[in-house]
Amino acid sequence: MGPWKAVVYLNQFFGGIGGEEKAGMEPVVRSGPVGPGNLFAELFGPEVEMVATVICGDNYFSEHLEEATERVLALMEGFRPDLVLAGPAFNAGRYGIACGSVCNAVVDRLGIPAVTGMYPENHGAELSRRSVFIVETRGTTAGMREAAEKMSRLAGKLLRGEPVGFPEEEGYLPRGIRRNTFSAETGAVRAVKMLLQKMKGEPFATEYPLPAFDRVPLLPPVDRMSRVTLALVTSGGIVPRGNPDCIEASSATRYGKYDIGALSEMTPESHETAHGGYDPTYANADPNRVLPLDAARDLEREGRIGKLHPFYYATVGNGTSVARCGQFAREIARDLIRSGVGAVLITST
Amino acid sequence: MAKEMEREGIPAVHICTIVPISRTVGANRIVPAVAIPHPLGDPCKSKTEEKSLRRALVEKALQALETKIEGQTVF
Question: What is the ipTM of this complex?
Answer without folding.
Answer: 0.97
